[in-house]
């Protein structure tokens, strides 16, 4: 990306553009790349983690669609890239949500001619407003899948658990919650990474496994439960699982 859209400060690292860089994308600025490279010095497997997360998204969405859910809300969708949710579940009604204006501009441009798909600019943390907007696009009397990949670790506890609780309350039985969440692999060096993200558009709030599992209260976890990304229903069950803990945990829950 060479030129910043109006209203966008290219000198402030943006978490969505940093993630795009990890995925070898082109929609990022020098400040994003510099911040991402600092993270890679502390967590050298971050790129592998981003790709593992993306591959988990593909398998989880396929599972949700195969389970008969035809409405998917992808929260904190990030910059468009290959293997988007609507491409994995082409028959589903898909609503992408992000609060970042740059992300939304790119998303709408990509999806301009795509039927049954919308890109909504909204802040997930303002959940009541978000749900009011989504109600025009999704029928909450029928099951819906909420995707929250690499999102909740950018929210403090009081906000994160409240957001998930509100999504659960509005969902019909049979709805799904799909989460991926970073953990703290190296407590001695993590403060350096936290400071980098504090200077970007969103600060990190890492949790342990029990803290992540708590998000699934009221849901039945699909097998194999809360696990590493590569271990969640891999395409090749015989392939070795990369259990480097800095990838974090993933899970898919069905509302009871």
Features:
seven-stranded mixed β-sheet; 14% strand; methyltransferase activity; SAM-dependent_MTases_sf; Rossmann fold; methyltransferase; globular; alpha/beta; 256 residues
What does it look like?
- GO terms for molecular function: methyltransferase activity.
- This is S-adenosyl methyltransferase.
- Keywords: Methyltransferase, Transferase.
- By secondary structure, the protein is an alpha/beta fold.
- The protein has one domain: Rossmann fold.
- The chain is 36% helix and 14% strand.
- It contains 9 helices and 7 strands.
- A 7-stranded mixed β-sheet has the order 3-2-1-4-5-7-6.
- The longest helix has 21 residues, at 46-66.
- It is globular, with a radius of gyration of 17 Å.
- The model has no long low-confidence stretch (mean pLDDT 86).
Instruction: Could you tell me the CATH topology label.
Output: Rossmann fold
Q: Mean of residue pLDDT?
A: 86
CATH architecture descriptor name? 3-Layer(aba) Sandwich
Strand and helix order: HHHEHEHEHEHEHHEE
- Radius of gyration based on Cα positions: 17 Å
Biggest beta sheet attributes = 7 strands, mixed
The total number of structural domains is: 1
Number of strands: 7
The fraction of residues in strands falls at 5-15%
Shape: globular
Segments where pLDDT lies below 50 for 5+ residues? none
According to CATH, what is the class?
Alpha Beta
Strand arrangement, largest sheet?
Answer: 3-2-1-4-5-7-6
Termini Cα gap: 44 Å
How many helical stretches? 9
